[in-house]
Amino acid sequence: MKLPEYWLKRAAGEIDPDTARTFDRLLNSSLASGPNAVIDYQLDAPRWQFLCHVAQEHGVALHGSGDCGIALFEPRQPVDLNAFGRQKAVYAASDGIWAMFFAIVDRDRYPMSVTNACIRLVEGEKVSDPFYFFSVSRAVLAHRPWRTGTVYLLPRATFFSQPELTFGAARVRIAQLASLEPVRPLARLAVSPDDFPFLDQIRGHDDERLQEYATALETGAPLPDEP
């Protein structure tokens, strides 16, 4: 299936075995430092690659925030257009780039709505690489509402995945996770806007048309302001 062009693709190519082993050593040493340890990231590889690796290869859930001092995540009631996202829960992602978006978008200083997604297409036994979409309120986009934030590494045990959607003949696997129970973080990694690989591809949307954007993302349709 061919997705509309507004979906963004992650840089192609798998990390080499030496980099993977380096990521594994950093994760293991960080976890050995105790609960919620600050990850001392001194590697040349981009931070998003490390986060994607630990999510995919180690089953770690990821939560992005502007608060660097969270010791316990407790279920909260969000405002969300999607039924899965309206549960009173702790939310996380199974993808490092998606979690990073929530860490670097400054919704404290700039009131805004956001619409975003991270999906993989499933056709038969074939699962695609991730596709992404990121958008903030058009009125604040020109202010570049970014910040330094934190991505928390969370144990996956109590999390469950958002149910798959269908785009035509393809199934769509969504990287959103939810836990109905409180979760204590394993470790945390500081990230900056420059660490986010799609910073210049974050779009702006009209707040009054947010439901139209959400519907397009859930069905694979064109965006409301595009042909």
Would you write up a description of this structure?
With 227 residues, this protein is of the alpha+beta class. Helix content is 22%, strand content 27%. The protein has helices at residues 17-32, 47-58, 96-104, 138-141, 210-219; strands spanning 8-9, 37-38, 61-65, 90-93, 114-123, 126-127, 131-137, 149-154, 159-161, 165-167, 170-174, 176-179, 187-191, 203-205. Strands 1, 5, 6, 7, 10, 11 and 14 form a seven-stranded mixed β-sheet that branches. The protein has a four-stranded mixed β-sheet with strand order 2-13-8-3. A hairpin with a 2-residue loop joins β10 (165-167) and β11. The two termini are 19 Å apart. The model has no long low-confidence stretch (mean pLDDT 93).
SSE diagram, text form:
Layout: E1 8-9, H1 17-32, E2 37-38, H2 47-58, E3 61-65, E4 90-93, H3 96-104, E5 114-123, E6 126-127, E7 131-137, H4 138-141, E8 149-154, E9 159-161, E10 165-167, E11 170-174, E12 176-179, E13 187-191, E14 203-205, H5 210-219
Parallel strand pairs: 2-13, 7-14
Antiparallel strand pairs: 1-7, 3-8, 4-12, 5-6, 5-7, 5-11, 8-13, 9-12, 10-11
Name the features.
7-stranded mixed β-sheet; 227 residues; 4-stranded mixed β-sheet; 22% helix; 14 strands; alpha+beta; globular; single chain; 5 helices
Number of helices: 5
Distance between the termini: 19 Å
Q: What is the residue-averaged pLDDT? A: 93
Overall 3D shape: globular
Fraction of residues in helix: 10-25%
C-alpha Rg, in Å?
17 Å
Order of helices and strands: EHEHEEHEEEHEEEEEEEH
Structural class: alpha+beta
Largest sheet: 7 strands, mixed
Q: Would you report the number of β strands?
A: 14
Question: Which residues form runs of ≥5 with pLDDT under 50?
Answer: none
Strand content bin: 25-35%
* Oligomeric category: single chain
